[in-house]
């Protein structure tokens, strides 16, 4: 009826230190992404499709981190680490839905940059406000039915052995380790969903950037090339951080899974990446820096 989230209980002397570190990181996630949301809504110069998607992305990062980090903080300062089967299923479901939304949203952002650089004359037509809202709605809603089915299938498995879940949240690999019987069908389903949700968007993003780079290199002036690259570099860094850790976690063979590595990679894409996103987009984007300066002065 319930699991025990072991989390970082194997290092009891560092519980207080880890609580402080993760609390600071979570506060940075909340404040940094909230600041981007406010700036992209209030600053007239940022009322463009690129910053519309950036505002959506920052909202998503807050939701994504909030699925796992508050529970992790509670567990670090509590002796009771139990989580009911229903709460575990709900945490996994929202974690997967927001993770899929991030994959799709990063793909939409790559498409926006592709149209802006490769088809600039058609950009106002192709990326009008209605199209942007439709793309954002599709990104937020597409993962809901797929992961409802996947989560239901996982928690339909019998759990008859140990209830000690060696992770800090209800992720797929550690939960499947506790399931009884044959999990081959579910593992195959996980791989199929991972290919649809992670691999295909990643390949679309790569394809977009191949075309973008080809177009940029054809620009006559070095100034034009530098400006075009600067609008894409922030997005590329975020894509590398998020997809890199996600692909390694969900698409590597089951035999190569190790508890320590799984926890490290999970920390990377649940806490580290959402924390660095505001810094990456602010420090590498002059428009956002100028808008932030104006906002802070006000």
What does this entry look like structurally?
- The chain has 298 residues and is mainly α.
- The chain is 77% helix and 3% strand.
- The protein contains 10 helices and 3 strands; from the N terminus they run E-H-H-E-H-H-H-E-H-H-H-H-H.
- A 3-stranded mixed beta sheet has the order 2-1-3.
- Helix 2 runs antiparallel to helix 3 and helix 3 packs parallel to helix 7.
- The longest helix has 34 residues, at 85-118.
- The mean pLDDT is 86.
Q: Enumerate the spans where pLDDT stays under 50 for 5 or more consecutive residues.
A: none
Give me the side-by-side strand order of the main sheet: 2-1-3
- Helix and strand run: EHHEHHHEHHHHH
* Overall pLDDT: 86
Q: What integer value in Å does the Rg equal? A: 21 Å
Separate helix tally:
10
Coarse shape: globular
Structure at a glance:
By secondary structure, the protein is mainly alpha-helical. It has helices at residues 15-42, 49-76, 85-118, 123-126, 129-155, 172-177, 184-217, 222-251, 259-283, 286-297, and strands at 2-5, 82-84, 164-165.
């Amino acid at each position: 009826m319930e699991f025990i989230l072991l989390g970082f209980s194997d290092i009891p002397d560092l519980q207080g230190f880890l609580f402080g570190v993760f609390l600071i990181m979570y506060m940075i996630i909340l404040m940094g992404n909230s600041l981007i949301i406010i700036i992209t809504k209030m600053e007239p110069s940022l009322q463009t499709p690129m910053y519309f998607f950036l505002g959506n992305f920052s909202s998503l990062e807050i939701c994504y981190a909030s699925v796992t980090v508050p529970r992790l903080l509670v567990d670090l300062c509590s002796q009771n680490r139990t989580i009911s089967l229903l709460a575990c299923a709900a945490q996994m479901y929202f974690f997967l839905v927001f993770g899929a939304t991030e994959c799709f949203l990063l793909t939409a952002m790559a498409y926006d940059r592709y149209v802006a650089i490769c088809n600039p004359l058609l950009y106002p037509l192709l990326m009008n406000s209605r199209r942007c809202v439709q793309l954002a709605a599709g990104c937020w809603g597409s993962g809901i039915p797929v992961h409802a089915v996947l989560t239901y299938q996982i928690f339909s498995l019998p759990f008859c052995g140990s209830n000690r879940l060696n992770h800090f949240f209800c992720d797929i690999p550690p939960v499947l380790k506790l399931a009884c019987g044959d999990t081959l069908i579910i593992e195959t389903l996980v791989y199929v969903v991972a290919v649809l949700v992670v691999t295909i968007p990643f390949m679309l993003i790569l394809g977009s950037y191949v075309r973008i780079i080809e177009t940029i290199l054809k620009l006559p002036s070095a100034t034009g090339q530098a400006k075009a690259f600067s609008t894409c570099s922030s997005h590329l860094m975020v894509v590398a951080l998020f997809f890199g850790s996600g692909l390694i976690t969900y698409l590597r063979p089951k035999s190569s899974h190790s508890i320590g590595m799984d926890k490290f990679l999970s920390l990377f894409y649940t806490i580290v990446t959402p924390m660095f996103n505001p810094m990456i987009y602010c420090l590498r984007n002059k428009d956002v820096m100028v808008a932030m300066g104006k906002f802070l002065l006000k």
